[in-house]
């Protein structure tokens, strides 16, 4: 059909960015433990900015050339985004105290919601401007010449907010936990804490080197790591995998809703069509996505990670069943306000639930020397689930729809099957969480690695007691 991108092209453009994200999470996660959080943090951002500009700054105009260029830069954009996951979560977890650590990490992750809203606003603004300047071309003008510039601007503007944060990323100190427990450099850790606490620590005892933690006693590829942390790593990876299967499929389900609640694409031009889609996404973000994130910020250190994750999976399953089971008989014909409320709740309880907690828990469960590596592995498992969910959902809906049309069946049956399967996947996530995931609320990071507890506690106790004048601010450090 003219004006409709073939499913194969859509699948490639979606999958290539997610494959890059998988690689970025694994590679940058490993580098974060080997080289340091701060050094790699700036590199991930630089890669994101350059790739975002590259996505829009394609020098070619033919469709094949543009798609090839887009896929190339989307891959590297995915690598940068993937690297940002383990580093952002770990840095925040290592700077925060155990009382408010969950809220702080959730607040970092919740910025995605505002990013979605901002991107929708930018898209709406550019489309409105170009539509007005071009004289509001009619529906028959599907792709006006100026549209080539519009989509490039939308992509490149996304690099600006990220670029504005680069200075603060490269100037931030390394986390004291990494410096002390991984690099074994207590004096540098003290200097880094001085920057964070904004107090002088010149009165520290000269014998501080005597409390240097013992070197690591086992490696990542060892039976001891498998015995101590294998279950935690499997739980984090599996939970993230299952929620991303559901979450990314659910995002693609929006395309099925556009036809019922937006003007038909045959009646609008390219600018108006993009404006309407962005407007719909902004409404979803304001009404469900962003509130879901901030409910997690408010309650995660009161209710706990495991309870919120189980609740999110359970309610998400209920909503998907409520949409999916009657979809063939009712929603496919009467996609009214009740349908939109149920669909909005799927985003709310994804974010006030496993979509956020799966980002938080891996940053709290593992010892400092493996923290970003394990977070990267967990996130990579999630993005593999995202590939299966998004590409699989796209092809399944296309193939089922074609088969139903060929045999004269109602097209809603295929969508009903897909939604019910997503509900079952959510229930599986709840079961895995109940049996495998450990609660981290109210516990220090070191309490998850018993071998290092005595060393870490003695380190922070010494820092606290070394100067009466610093007693109050160092209490916060001792609570980490």
From TrEMBL:
Question: What is one term from the GO cellular component aspect held by the record?
Answer: membrane
Alphabetically list the UniProt keywords.
Membrane, Phosphate transport, Symport, Transmembrane, Transmembrane helix, Transport
Q: Which PROSITE patterns match?
A: MFS
Q: Where in the cell is it found?
A: Membrane
Cross-referenced Gene3D superfamilies, in alphabetical order?
Answer: MFS general substrate transporter like domains
Its main localization is membrane
Q: Which family does it belong to?
A: Belongs to the major facilitator superfamily. Phosphate:H(+) symporter (TC 2.A.1.9) family.
Q: What is this protein called?
A: Major facilitator superfamily (MFS) profile domain-containing protein
């Amino acid at each position: 059909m003219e004006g409709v991108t073939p499913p194969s092209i859509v699948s490639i453009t979606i999958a290539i960015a997610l494959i890059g994200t998988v690689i970025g999470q694994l590679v940058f996660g490993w580098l974060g433990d080997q080289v340091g959080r701060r050094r790699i943090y700036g590199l991930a951002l630089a890669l994101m900015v350059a790739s975002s500009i590259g996505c829009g700054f394609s020098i070619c105009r033919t469709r094949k050339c543009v798609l090839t260029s887009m896929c190339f830069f989307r891959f590297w954009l995915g690598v940068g985004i993937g690297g940002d996951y383990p580093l952002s979560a770990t840095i925040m977890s290592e700077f925060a105290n155990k009382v408010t650590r969950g809220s702080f990490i959730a607040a970092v992750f919740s910025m995605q919601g505002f990013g979605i809203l901002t991107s929708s606003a930018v898209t709406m603004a550019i489309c409105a401007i170009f539509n007005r300047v071009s004289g509001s071309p009619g529906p028959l003008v599907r792709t006006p010449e100026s549209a080539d510039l519009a989509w490039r601007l939308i992509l490149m503007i996304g690099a600006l907010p990220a670029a504005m944060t680069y200075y603060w990323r490269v100037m931030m100190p390394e986390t004291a936990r990494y410096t002390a427990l991984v690099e074994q450099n207590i004096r540098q850790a003290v200097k880094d804490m001085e920057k964070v606490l904004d107090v002088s620590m010149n009165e520290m005892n000269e014998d501080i080197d005597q409390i240097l933690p013992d070197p690591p006693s086992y490696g990542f590829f060892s039976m001891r790591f498998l015995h101590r942390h294998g279950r935690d790593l499997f739980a984090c990876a599996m939970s993230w995998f299952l929620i991303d299967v559901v979450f990314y499929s659910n995002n693609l389900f929006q395309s099925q809703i556009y036809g019922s609640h937006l003007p038909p694409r045959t009646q609008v031009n390219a600018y108006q069509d993009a404006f309407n889609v962005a407007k719909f996404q902004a409404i979803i973000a304001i009404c469900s996505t962003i509130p879901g994130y901030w409910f997690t910020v408010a309650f995660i250190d009161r209710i706990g990670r495991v309870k919120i994750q189980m609740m999110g999976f359970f309610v998400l399953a209920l909503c998907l069943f409520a949409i999916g089971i009657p979809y063939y008989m009712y929603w496919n014909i009467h996609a009214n306000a009740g349908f939109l409320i149920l669909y909005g709740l799927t985003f709310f309880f994804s974010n006030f639930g496993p979509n956020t907690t799966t980002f938080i828990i891996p940053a709290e469960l593992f010892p400092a020397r493996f923290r970003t590596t394990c977070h990267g592995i967990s996130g990579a498992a999630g993005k593999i689930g995202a590939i299966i969910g998004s590409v699989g959902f796209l092809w399944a809906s296309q193939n089922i729809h074609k088969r139903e049309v060929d045999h004269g069946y109602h097209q809603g049956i295929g969508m009903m099957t897909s939604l019910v399967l997503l509900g079952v996947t959510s229930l599986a996530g709840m079961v895995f969480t109940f049996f495998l995931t450990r609660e981290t609320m109210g516990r220090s990071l070191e309490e998850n690695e018993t071998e290092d507890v005595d060393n870490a506690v003695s380190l922070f106790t010494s820092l606290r007691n070394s100067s009466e004048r610093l007693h109050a601010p160092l209490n916060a450090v001792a609570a980490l």
